[in-house]
Write a structure and sequence with these properties.
Elements lengths: L11 H4 L24 E3 L2 E3 L3 E7 L6 H13 L4 E3 L17 H14 L2 E5 L6 H7 L2 E4 L7 H9 L4 E4 L6 H13 L5 E5 L17 H8 L4 E3 L1 H5 L5 H10 L4 E5 L17 H17 L3 E2 L1
Parallel strand pairs: 3-4, 3-10, 3-11, 4-5, 5-6, 6-7, 7-8, 8-9
Antiparallel strand pairs: 1-2
Helix pairs in contact: 2-3, 5-6, 9-10
The chain binds phosphoenolpyruvate and manganese (II) ion.
Phosphoenolpyruvate (PEP) binds next to loops.
């Protein structure tokens, strides 16, 4: 089947050569069902509109102090959405699993003190209710993208959902996973490209930048990029982040830590706070160059 020409005029010559699925293949997330882009509202913040929205914070909430120091810098940088995992999906059962509900409480405390909106992961269907009491956005992690009971539970919740692409999932599978959430009545889904497994070993994953224009051509959902998990190394994060903004991402999810070398999870990819501040300023220039604002 042929993809209708990508909606942007920027590559008219090659657009007709791009093949993919019919947008009507996706009953609810497909452009066929809704022409206008979905804009997800988190308080006054709009994801999927003209702004590029930066969500940042530690991979895992480790302590009050760690979260407070991070939050202070983020606030100074104009960031409005704080990330932090309380229930962590770890490859090894012996690694730090997160603070659980105690982590959610710390998130609530910092949210109140600094006025952030917060995003955190719901690892299982039974956690959706608890996490919803604290989170402004429910994160569904890469490893959970095809946890269908979890998708259905998130679909029943009233909270916006950030659905991360499975590390071994095609875009079609990602769109169909989002379809589960919409089918349960929750239209507020944000997709997240966070890198996929390839044969390349110098990066943790391979960032699939073409996911951005393809998502926009086939679906009406916003898509953000997570350059931290996509690259796995803090030295590479700025390059991937800038490329994502230039390619039209609606937002970024970035891991930062006050002492990255001591982070209990994802230490190699966590940005130093000072590097994060510098990066945000650079990203703002890129956003401006393509007619968007960023924070
Ligand atoms: C995370 O955001 O910390 C995380 C676990 O991400 P992913 O699900 O993309 O691996
Ligand atoms: Mn992480």
């Amino acid at each position: 089947m042929y993809l209708p020409a990508l909606s942007h005029n920027w590559c008219e010559t090659s657009a007709s050569d791009i093949r993919a699925l019919d947008p009507n293949h996706f009953k609810l997330v497909g452009k066929g069902s809704k022409k206008e882009p979905t804009r997800v509202h988190i308080g006054p913040i709009e994801i999927g509109g003209s702004e590029v929205v930066v969500m940042a914070g530690p991979c895992a909430i480790e302590s009050r102090n760690q979260l407070l120091i991070t939050a202070k810098t983020l606030k100074e940088s104009g960031i409005r959405i704080l990330r932090g995992g309380a229930f962590k999906p770890r490859t090894s059962p012996y690694d730090f699993q997160g603070l659980g509900e105690e982590g959610l409480k710390l998130l609530a405390e910092v949210k109140k003190e600094y006025g952030f909106f917060v995003i955190t992961e719901a690892l299982s269907p039974s956690l959706v209710e608890l996490v919803s009491q604290y989170a402004d956005i429910l994160q569904i992690g890469s490893r959970s993208m095809q946890n269908f009971p979890l998708l259905k539970e998130a679909g029943k919740s009233k909270k916006p959902v950030l659905l991360k692409r499975g590390m071994m999932a095609t875009l079609e599978e990602l769109f169909l996973a989002a379809e589960y959430i919409l089918a349960e009545g929750n239209p507020n889904v944000i997709l997240c490209e966070r890198g996929i497994r390839t044969f390349e070993k110098y990066t943790r994953n391979t960032l699939d930048l073409s996911a951005i224009p393809i998502t926009k051509a086939l679906t009406h959902l916003p898509i953000i990029v997570d350059p931290s998990h996509a690259t796995g190394y803090r030295e590479l994060v700025p390059y991937a982040a800038k490329a994502a903004v230039a390619a039209g991402a609606d937002g970024l999810l970035l891991e930062v830590h006050p002492s990255p070398l001591e982070a209990l999870s994802d230490a190699p990819q966590s940005l130093y706070l000072s590097d994060f501040q510098k990066l945000v300023n650079e990203l703002e220039l890129i956003a401006k160059a393509i007619g968007r604002s960023l924070r």
